[in-house]
TrEMBL record:
InterPro entries: Arm-DNA-bind_5 (IPR035386), DNA_brk_join_enz (IPR011010), Integrase-like_cat_sf (IPR013762), Integrase_catalytic (IPR002104), Integrase_recombinase_N (IPR010998), SAM-like_dom (IPR025269)
Record domain Tyr recombinase: where: 212-417
Record's protein name: Recombinase
Protein's UniProt keywords contain DNA-binding: yes
Pfam families documented for this protein: Arm-DNA-bind_5, Phage_int_SAM_5, Phage_integrase
One BP term from GO: DNA recombination
Superkingdom classification of source: Bacteria
Protein keywords: DNA recombination, DNA-binding
GO MF, one annotated term: DNA binding
């Protein structure tokens, strides 16, 4: 069941005034989508009952023709879908009408995907996905690549090409496949390509990640780092604090540690939103965390200050009321600062490892692996799932499988007894 209606859609402009936009509203199964006709109309020029502009508007004839034209396009599309017994949603219909002039190519939709990520301030993902898209472009050598051209043969050849470069891992190739799959599904949803051309799934291209070995520090190595005298090395000492802060809180990601503020510590608990997926997390602050925090309290001016000094010069504004435009600029600055500071911290961790006489490669992410290694099978997977902030238990079990060796070791010892 679908219904069409032309309405004046109210919206606030930059000055806070209400403007009314000429809009066609489509409802399918009680879900709505809108097509803006890019015209602002005063209410006194609108006949709501007849759904058209009255004669008071100087361009009423032209705009009423535009309404009828768009109505016809939408009705023709729905009629075609109904005649072929294809299901559709309001969003799908409106997307098809918006792109009615010419179907978007794969790279045009990819560009739109990057723009959406940037608007959502997901800068890390935007940069990562843009890099993947550039790899696909290098191989395709076709700016106007259509979705139908991305078939099993194309994907197999792409994989061979990427593997031949020599610097791209199997996991990275699978991540490129995942991005192509995401964009292909978006293309199907927007009616840019028929489902029958979908190259992934049973009997087609399968995305399978290679097994990886995750190595974390053990208790003795964490103790060596903690007890190291760094009184003569203040920068490395601060790096150690960030690393241990992450470790003691079940491996908080480096970006979340650096962007943490004093207001996030309340009543001996840490509250923060994960940058990776926007999940809200609350964890108890162990005595070790309280000790680390004590090193930085003397520099605290307000609750809006960052706990660690690495973002000190990111923004001159610490006000809670930051304009939306300034907020977007600040998020980009934080992303850039995170990349820069992570590189510096990893360089310092390399020096720290040498000073502590630890042979393993130490990076900020190793704090998470180290927690998993020491946790082993001491607590249930369900509890570890909460500590790791994983959405699915299967993710926790797969992750923790890298660090649980006791059962297999005992089994091996029971067999090799001669």
């Amino acid at each position: 069941m679908s219904t069409l209606k032309t309405v004046l859609h109210p919206k606030k402009d930059n000055n806070g005034n209400t403007i009314f936009r000429l809009t066609i509203r489509l409802t399918v199964n009680r879900k709505r989508s809108y097509l803006q006709l890019l015209q602002n109309i005063a209410p006194e020029h609108w006949d709501a009952h007849a759904e058209k502009l009255n004669t008071k508007h100087p361009k009423h004839k032209q705009l009423n023709r535009l309404i009828r034209k768009k109505y016809g396009e939408i009705e023709d599309y729905i009629l075609e879908m109904d005649s072929t017994n294809k299901s559709y949603t309001a969003i799908q219909v409106m997307d098809a009408i918006k792109n009615n002039k010419e179907k978007q190519t794969f790279f045009e939709l990819a560009k739109e995907h990057i723009e959406d990520l940037t608007k959502l301030e997901k800068h890390n993902r935007a940069v990562s996905d843009q890099s993947k898209i550039n790899r696909i472009k290098e191989f395709a050598k076709n700016e106007n690549l259509s979705f139908e051209e991305i078939d099993e043969y194309f994907l197999k050849k792409l994989k061979i090409h990427l593997a031949g470069i020599g610097t791209i891992s199997e996991r990275s190739i699978m991540n490129i496949y995942v991005l192509i799959r995401l964009l292909y599904n978006n293309g199907i949803r927007k009616n840019l390509v028929d489902q029958k051309f979908y190259p992934f799934g049973k009997g087609k291209i399968k995305i399978k990640y290679p097994e990886t070995i995750k190595i974390g520090l053990d208790e003795m190595e964490i103790r060596k780092i903690k007890e190291l005298d760094l009184s003569q090395y203040p920068e490395i000492s601060k790096t150690r604090d960030v690393f241990l802060f992450s470790f003691y809180l079940a491996g908080i990601r480096i970006g979340d540690v650096l962007s943490m503020k004093w207001k996030d510590v309340v009543d001996d608990r840490v509250y923060y939103k994960m940058g990776k997926n926007n999940k809200t997390v609350s964890l108890k602050t162990p005595a070790q965390i309280t000790e680390i925090l004590s090193h930085y309290k003397q520099d605290k001016v307000s609750n809006s200050d960052y706990i660690f000094p690495h973002f000190k010069n990111v923004s001159k504004k610490n006000s809670e009321k930051v304009l939306k435009k300034d907020s977007k600029k600040e998020s980009k600055k934080i992303y850039t600062a995170t990349k820069t500071q992570t590189k510096k911290l990893n360089a310092n961790l390399k020096k720290l490892g040498i000073m502590a006489e630890i042979d393993k490669k130490i990076t900020n992410h190793i704090a998470r692996h180290s927690f998993g290694n020491i946790a082993g099978d001491k607590v249930s997977p369900q509890m570890l799932q909460k500590l790791y902030r994983h959405t699915h238990l299967s993710t926790t079990i797969g992750y923790q499988g890298n660090f649980i060796h006791k059962s297999a070791d005992d089994a091996l010892d029971s067999i090799i007894t001669f």
